[in-house]
Specification:
The complex is a heterodimer of chains A (219) and B (216). By secondary structure, chain A is mainly alpha-helical. Chain A has one domain (2-217). Chain A has 9 helices and no strands. Chain B contains 5 helices and 9 strands. Chain B has helices spanning 41-48, 90-101, 112-118, 134-147, 164-179; strands at 2-12, 15-26, 30-34, 56-62, 75-78, 152-156, 183-187, 197-201, 214-215. In chain B, the strands form 2 sheets. Chain B has a 6-stranded mixed sheet with strand order 5-6-7-3-8-9, sandwiched between helices. In chain B, helix 5 (164-179) links the parallel strand 6 (152-156) and strand 7. In chain B, helix 2 (90-101) runs parallel beside helix 4 and helix 3 crosses helix 4. Chain B starts with a strand and ends with a strand. Classes of the chains: A mainly alpha (219), B alpha/beta (216). At the A-B interface, helix 1 and helix 5 of A face helix 2 of B.
């Protein structure tokens, strides 16, 4: 299983891999916001956490459709389906590798982009923490969409449409946790805990559903 | 160990691809599946590999390991696609499959250098898989059969894109596998030069002719 994790990491870093595309997209989206909104520093600081979260959500969706499709195209998926290892473990490891290659860079890039949005240290820290807790959920939800669309040649858009509604709670609780951290009366922990619960919930449900979809998609 | 299929039939969409196929293969025996294009050879092999559900019938492994759920867990499947990543080197590809698949009980896979040597391409394992020619890629996909031990080999057109020398080399590999008590099921148009084979002739949508299989 470690072999699978390392292989997927290698593949995402090598030419044609998706690791850099997500983080570059994230940077592009967030970097153009100040130009569009104008030089109102207070406004930027206020919408900053929400913009970072929306950017991270959209960037996580990029490249999700290739999660299983690339394996299917070269026949690797057939061999993975045949093994004694339960398929849901394989799916879980693939998700973990995908998150490490595409989700983690978003978390690391967030402070720099927070500066673009004139956010203070507390807001940047809270955004990083919520992204760290919340983005794995997007990957696990996305895995289900990717598995459903695995045999469609242009499944990318479909995956986004399938995944986005399910990812909305992640966005809501992620952003509300950040605002709770910077605005005094609201407590920070409850939304963060719910965010963590969403991630754990989908870490279990996602691989099971994705594995079931992959079994039925094989032809 | 004995692989027994009874009354297998499979469907793709609405169409019945084949009907009532039965065979039994003991250790060291091979089954060659022949027939015209579209007669259901690949479908049969995918059913045997557990990748497609059979419409009817059963596939059993007698005297196999007790904890096994489906014979596919003890099988190698070499399909039309090579299951190797173009971006990774040959060695990375092979060592991934060696680690990921592991060995079935009762044998151990060869190490990488030995497997690459056995398919006649020593010294190019450091190249990305995508750099190789179609024939070289196919040979490296065969090396995958050697690095992880599986008693059952399911091969779909294994020698497509191979030259005559590689055909012979491949027949050698298959024979060595049979000598060690393995089971081979291969769909092919070309004669593989194998001994001890049964032949299954697929005739397409009308089902299978006559006696289901005859000794060649």
């Amino acid at each position: 299983m470690i072999a699978l994790f390392l292989r997927d990491l290698k593949l995402s870093i090598r030419a044609g891999g998706g690791a850099m595309i997500g983080v570059l997209f994230f940077m592009t989206v967030v970097a153009v916001i100040p130009f569009g909104v104008g030089p109102d520093l207070n406004l930027l600081a206020r919408i900053g956490p929400a913009i970072l979260w929306i950017g991270a959500l959209l960037a996580s969706l990029l490249g999700l459709d290739r999660l299983f499709q690339a394996e299917r195209e070269d026949g690797s998926l057939d061999l993975m389906l045949m093994q004694e290892t339960p398929l849901l473990v394989t799916v879980f490891v693939k998700c973990a590798a995908h998150w490490a290659a595409t989700g983690l860079p978003l978390v690391i890039a967030a402070p720099l982009l927070g500066l673009f949005m004139n956010m203070d240290e507390l807001a940047i820290g809270a955004t990083m923490l919520t992204l760290l807790v919340g983005t794995p959920a997007i990957t696990f939800i996305g895995a289900v969409g990717a598995a459903v669309a695995v045999s469609l040649p242009r499944g990318g858009l479909l995956v986004s449409i399938l995944v986005l509604p399910l990812a909305i709670p992640v966005l809501i609780f992620g952003v509300s946790a950040v605002y709770a951290a910077i605005e005094d009366p609201a407590p920070f922990l409850p939304p963060l805990m719910i965010l963590a619960a969403i991630t754990l919930f989908f870490a279990v449900i996602g691989p099971v559903a994705a594995a079931a979809a992959l079994r039925h998609a094989s032809d | 160990m004995r692989l027994v299929a009874e009354g297998l039939s499979a469907r793709r969409g609405e169409d019945l691809i084949f009907n009532d196929i039965s065979f039994a293969l003991g250790a060291g025996e091979a089954l060659v599946v022949t027939g015209p294009n579209g007669s259901g050879k690949s479908t049969l092999l995918r059913v045997l590999a557990g990748l497609l559900m059979a419409e009817k019938g059963s596939l059993k492994l007698e005297n196999g390991p007790p904890e096994m759920r489906h014979p596919s867990e003890l099988s190698h499947y070499l399909g039309h696609r090579n299951a190797m990543k173009r971006e990774l080197t040959v060695a990375e590809n092979l060592s991934f499959w060696k680690n990921f698949m592991g060995d079935s009980p009762g044998g151990s896979g060869r190490d990488l250098a030995e497997a690459v040597e056995a398919v006649g391409l020593p010294g190019i394992a450091h190249l990305p898989f995508g750099y190789l020619s179609a024939g070289q890629q196919r040979r490296m996909a065969m090396a995958k059969l050697l690095v992880a031990h599986r008693p059952i080999w399911i091969l779909d057109e294994p020698t497509a894109a191979l030259d005559a020398g590689a055909d012979k080399l491949f027949a050698g590999l298959v024979n060595a596998h049979l000598d060690k008590g393995g089971i081979v099921i291969a769909a092919t148009h070309q004669p593989l030069g194998l001994e001890r084979i049964q032949e299954l002739r697929m005739t397409g949508f009308s089902g299978v002719d006559g006696g289901l299989w005859h000794d060649a």
